[in-house]
Design goal:
Largest interface: A-B, 39 and 36 residues
Largest sheet of chain B: 4 strands, mixed
Order of helices and strands of chain A: HHHHHHHEHE
Radius of gyration of chain A: 17 Å
Distance between the termini of chain B: 57 Å
Largest sheet of chain A: 2 strands, antiparallel
Shape of chain B: elongated
Helix content of chain A: 55-70%
Oligomer: heterodimer
Number of strands of chain B: 8
Number of helices of chain A: 8
Shape of chain A: globular
Strand content of chain A: under 5%
Structural class of chain B: alpha+beta
Helix content of chain B: 10-25%
């Protein structure tokens, strides 16, 4: 069938699902073949989670509290869309080929993903997941990375002195960086 | 008969080739200079990929397209840094990150606003 054909998916997946099939990890590709409809729903939630993060924080940060929120909220709405089991499969698959230098980032993402899944499972379908996850973040239930080197620019575009020149590959992570609760 | 088959085969092959070229996935980068500054150059860095546009006058908009296959990414996130240079000096920039998907969007726009703030989205 078409959803099991790598060549077809590579050519057409982005047209329908906003994602490039050849930019998925192997584990994600395998899941797309098994759960094409669920993959579609999850791909549509990417922009929703990204927009909600900007609404809440004014930015889509990296390894900071906005990043923690984005992951938790994304997996919570995915859980409502496709259920906890398939959400967990896709969220783990997305983190399956993270470069070795970003291993702390992977740990952070996996931790916050699980919080999002749990909040969706343990709360009524009409509860505001954005609000619940923001409250959890304030209580310190989510994790972010600290200390990190800043990106080259602040949120209005000014160069930051001491900004990491290798930020594109290091994401600001150093040997001193640790996972920290979001109430710190 | 053989000639007709050859002709048909050529037409089909050409059609397929054109389709392949048309369907190569592209991403558009836009630099919008809403300021009064004459910008020497702007660089966009996506993971290890780098592209540069030069000589952008005040009020001008520069657009360029890249083939997505020319950008090597890590399948986990897209991190883009846009840097704006004037008189050989880095004056402003923009930062974009999304790790919910490793796919490039159709379009990214770096805007240098009239109040000298920037956005990259």
């Amino acid at each position: 069938m078409w959803w099991e054909d790598d060549s077809w998916l590579d050519m057409n997946f982005s047209l329908a699902l906003d994602q490039d099939y050849n930019r998925l990890t192997q584990a994600e590709r395998d899941l797309v073949k098994i759960y094409p409809a669920e993959a579609y729903l999850i791909s549509k939630n990417v922009n929703i989670a990204t927009s909600e993060t900007v609404t809440q924080f004014g930015r889509n940060g990296l390894n900071d509290k906005s990043d923690a929120f984005r992951h938790s909220y994304f997996q919570s709405i995915n859980t409502r869309s496709v259920g906890a089991t398939i959400t967990k499969l896709f969220s783990d698959a997305h983190e399956s080929e993270v470069p070795a230098g970003l291993i702390l980032e992977k740990e952070m993402d996996l931790f916050n993903n699980q919080i999002g899944i749990d909040y969706a499972v343990n709360n009524p379908p009409r509860a505001s997941l954005s609000l619940l996850i923001m409250e959890a973040l304030i209580r310190g239930e989510l994790r972010y990375l600290s200390p990190t080197l800043p990106p080259p620019f602040d949120h209005v575009g000014n160069p930051i002195p001491g900004g990491d020149p290798l930020f594109n590959s290091t994401h600001g992570i150093t040997s001193a960086t640790q996972l920290v609760p979001t109430n710190q | 008969m053989k000639k007709v088959i050859k002709l048909l085969a050529s037409i089909i092959a050409s059609f397929l080739l054109i389709q392949c070229i048309l369907y190569q996935k592209k991403t558009t980068f836009i630099f919008e200079n809403k300021s009064d500054l004459h910008v020497d150059s702007v660089t966009f860095t996506i993971n290890k990929y780098k592209n540069k546009i030069t000589n952008i006058r005040p009020g001008k908009r520069e657009v360029y397209e890249i083939l997505r296959d020319s950008v090597d990414t890590n399948l986990h996130d897209i991190t883009i840094i846009g840097s704006i240079f004037c008189s050989g000096k880095l004056i402003k920039g923009g930062f974009y990150h999304n790790d919910l998907s490793g796919s490039l969007n159709d379009q990214y726009t770096l805007t240098l606003n009239s109040n000298m703030t920037t956005t990259l989205e």
